[in-house]
Amino acid sequence: MRKLVLAISMLALVGSAAFADPVQDRQALMKERGKLAGQLSKVVKGEEDFDATAVLTTLKALQANAERFDAEKLFPAGSDKGDTTAAPKIWEDMAGFKATEDKLLTNVKAAVASPPTDVDALKAQLNTIGGDCGTCHQSYRIKKG
Fold this sequence. Notes:
Layout: H1 2-18, H2 22-44, H3 52-67, H4 71-74, H5 89-92, H6 94-113, H7 119-140
């Protein structure tokens, strides 16, 4: 009986994943990304003390988040409708959109590979990463009004 319940549970999980909502999925990914960047920003602003281990842990989580980004799954054709701030330019310039995300991933990986040793180093890295986020938001996101 236990195996049957487990099998049914696994099928339900797989089934729900197959019908995942790309808009909700990308919004969840971006909210997580924003939360992680916000944690780093608090350190840069002096709202939290610099802790090299905690900063590296957050950078690694940011890298994992960026590695989960899959433009085809998160932004399939037709997912520009509904409760989304994704700009039409995403689908018009998918190559440029992907390149922008690739640049972010490259810069986050560089930050993880060479972790900051103080607040000034973190600030420099966060400025680069934040610039990548800003570039994407300027080009590929509809501003909420």
